[in-house]
Write a structure and sequence with these properties.
The protein has 270 residues and is α/β, with parallel strands linked by helices. The chain has a single domain, classed as NAD(P)-binding Rossmann-like Domain (Rossmann fold). It is built from nine helices and seven strands. Strands 3-2-1-4-5-6-7 form a seven-stranded parallel beta sheet, with helices on both faces. β5, α6 and β6 form a beta-alpha-beta unit. The protein is globular and about 55 Å long.
Amino acid sequence: MSTSLHLAPAGNLNAPRPLALVTGAARRIGRAIALDLAAHGWDIALHCHRSFAEAEQTAVDARVLGAQAEVFRVDLADASACETLVPAVLLRCGRLDAVVNSASLFEYDDVVSFSVQGMDRHWRANTAPAILLARALHEHLVSRGAQGCVVNLLDQKLANPNPDYLSYTLSKAALEAANTLLAQALAPTLRVCAVSPGVTLLSGAMTADEFATAHRLTPLQRSSTPADVASAVRFLLESPAITGTTLLVDGGQHLQAQPRDVLFLAQTKN
């Protein structure tokens, strides 16, 4: 894998392309975000854990779009390993301007099946890495005298809570609080924002028919797509007056009170 050259975009030969680290970039929403950024003037550091071959393919696809792209394989749930990620990106790519925290653990539990171990797994995967990576990016930007942005992926269910996926929801609620606290603590160098998708891709035990039903169970009769989420992330990265806020990209799903996760509601409709 070659070192990123940070080619200047057309029309400004003296300015390097900005570089974003996208976690969980091998597949699903993370891949869509990485490729959208690559198509719009960003170079990409692609993080993966187990999906290395898929991350390599995403890097190939990003290069076709004109981006410099490098793959970094790290277990973010291991705090020591997580803290090596930004230094590794800087060593290989020379700079970093933004982090998009897309990687996420999504395991089912409820009050009955809750365990401290399960909550800890979600905290280590979904909450702590975002804080560690924001801190590391901030330190780098201060050293450069530059400014940057973090975008965290949340979940619309934080605005419309139900007790399914308890540990996952608690980890995302903690990340939502961290979003505000980091925006306060790391300004003016670093902006910290979030995107809360709705039903975007088939996941967990959901069937294709249930996903199609769930996607329609919103005021707009369509929930978010990967392209919708990627576009919202790019908007926040490129909006210098926005920090400490969340965009809900969910077809209005957060407006409807739901006693259970949308998976179970979709099952009753089929």
